[in-house]
Amino acid sequence: MKLFEKIKLDKDVSSQHLYIQLYKALKGFIVEGKLKKGDRLPPIRKLSEMLEVNNVTVVSSYRMLEEEKLVYKKIGSGTYVAFDLHNNEGFDHGPKTSLIEQGHIQLEKNTINFASATPSTDLFPVDDFKEVLNEVLDRDKGSAFGYQESQGYYPLRLALKEYIDNYNIITDINNIQIISGAQQGIDIIAKGLLNYGDYVMIEGPSYRGAMAVFESRGAKIIDIPLEKDGLNLQDLEKKIIAYQPKFLYMMPNFQNPTGISYSLEKKKKILEIAEKYHLLIVEDDYLSDLNFYNNENITLKSLDHKDLVIYIKSFSKILMPGLRLGFLVVPRLVYGEVLLAKHTTDISTSGLLQRALELYLKKGTWQQHIRYMGTQYMERFEAMVRSIKEYMPQEVEYTLPKGGVNFWFKLPKGLSSKELYEMTVKQKIVFAPGHLFFLNNKETSYFRLSTAAVNVDEIKYGIKELSDMINVFMRKENHHSTQTNEYTPIL
Ligand SMILES: Cc1ncc(COP(=O)(O)O)c(C=O)c1O
Questions:
Q1: How far apart are CA 445 and CA 450, in angstroms?
Q2: What ranges in 10-125 are assigned the alpha helix state H?
Q3: Residue 286 near ligand 1, beta carbon < 6 Å
Q4: Could you give the dihedral angle defined by the CA atoms of residues 339, 345, 351 and 357, in that order, rounded to the nearest 10 degrees?
Q5: Which family is this protein grouped under (predicted)?
Q6: Ligand 1 mean position to 22 CA, how many Å?
């Protein structure tokens, strides 16, 4: 009880409600790790006596914590903390749509996770990275912990310039900006270029994390429907004229969530349109390396002779997301704004990790790793393709991607993928319902399955089980309608 004695409530009538003050104090204990997963909260009467408040105040604050899944009630036993600061892989309760809507899922043990497009941790080159980290510390000593220049550690930028030379992205080293992950790249581009009320264009559907950034800047977002080979060009041109957007955000290779790769012809046409209307393009290249069968994954940036494309490259999917490392290639036109936005955001990306990545790239371990990731992802990809062909009910529409980790499906007759999710999560299979990727966030029939976080056995078993569940789901009565048909079918 000692901890709880520290709670000070302001009982002045003009202050915040007591139950909210109490909720905040308790939440603070949980978030700071002072209360750990499994700890029991004091019985309601005891706490109310101690704090000299009404029972209802304590009950209401516990209820607020429960609604956030920070605590849970055991009938007849009390209220327990469900969240562990140091191991937040799991709340004590299973995944809920509300969490997935925020871009997170909390997994129960043994859940087959088709929802996450993040690689499983067993693929990470931990030992190799430990070696380069130690080497950097021995070599650079304290300098590894000093402020790094905002644009990025020069030798790393040099190594990255050489790396993208191989992909025909020819740029000056001064146009490379190191970022703490692609998400930060999107954020600083928005910070540097957008004013409140500006228009931004995205693909429909698109990556939720980017939409959230643009919304946070007060931008108005316009989506352009995707077709099998990329954006609908008529719609794109019409909307450029109508809205004069600041930029178009897109993923031309293995698009998230649809897995679509644009045809070379469309990539070229989009660049022509960009030139005609002086439109900036933000190319999010989060995955083009996972091309298994052909060379159709060339980047827009490598075709960009007019310097209109801001290129974002992430190392999260192909190396380790926790490194928070990526880089931008910034056109001259917006160089000042974007570099300033990075500086005002966090001064620089971790110098230690930049140095370690530079050494990792230089040593050639990187080439081995990328080959290893390629084979691992390809095995998963092929297992997925085989399982889909074998088990997925015929009524479900899809077009298979040519690489990457994302597969996009459509349920028949406007059935809701959110409703399907609510059913499968109980059987410990999760995926990403399609509404997460659309602007209006309305329930849709679309859903995304990712192969990044599942192994081959899980894929085989999971797709069979999921297909069986879809069969049951399709035959169930009393479905509610999704009204998704306003979107052009994209696959
Ligand atoms: C399309 C896309 N862009 C950016 C990101 C964020 O990547 P990072 O971890 O590099 O910030 C993700 C993460 O899933 C993504 O799917």
A1: 17
A2: 18-31, 44-51, 55-67, 97-101
A3: yes
A4: -70
A5: In the C-terminal section; belongs to the class-I pyridoxal-phosphate-dependent aminotransferase family.
A6: 37
Cβ of 117 closer than 6 Å to ligand 1, yes or no, is yes
Boundaries of domain holding 389: 112-122+368-475
What is the pairing mode between strands 280-285 and 247-250?
Answer: parallel
26 Cα–ligand 1 center, Å: 33
Residue 343: C-alpha distances to residues 53, 101, 147, 149, 338 (Å): 48, 31, 12, 9, 9
How far does residue 288's CA lie from ligand 1's centre (Å)? 13
* CA of 133 relative to ligand 1 center, distance in Å: 24
**107 in a structural domain:** no
Find residue 112's DSSP bridge partners.
429
Give the integer Cα–Cα distance in Å for 267 and 436.
Answer: 26
The tokens for 298 are 């060339």
Q: For ligand 1, is residue 182 a contact (CB within 6 Å)?
A: yes
Regarding whether 192 and 133 lie in a shared domain, the answer is: yes
299 lines ligand 1 (CB under 6 A): no
Which CATH number does the domain housing residue 437 bear? 3.90.1150.10
Q: How far apart are CA 176 and CA 411, in angstroms?
A: 43
Q: Is 207 in the pocket of ligand 1 (CB under 6 A)?
A: yes
Q: What is the position in ligand 1's atom list of the atom closest to the CA of 117?
A: 14
* Beta bridge partners of residue 225, listed in sequence order: 204
**What are the backbone dihedrals phi and psi of residue 98, each rounded to the nearest 5 degrees, phi first?**
-60, -35
In a shared domain, residues 218 and 268? yes
- Distance between CA atoms of 275 and 254, rounded to whole angstroms? 24
Residue from 102, 188, 207 whose mutation best tests the ligand 1 pocket (most atoms within 8 A of CB): 207
Count of domains in the chain? Answer: 3
pLDDT, one tens digit per residue, over 187-244 is 999 999 999 999 999 999 999 999 999 999 999 999 999 999 999 999 999 999 999 9
Residue 78 Cβ < 6 Å to ligand 1? no
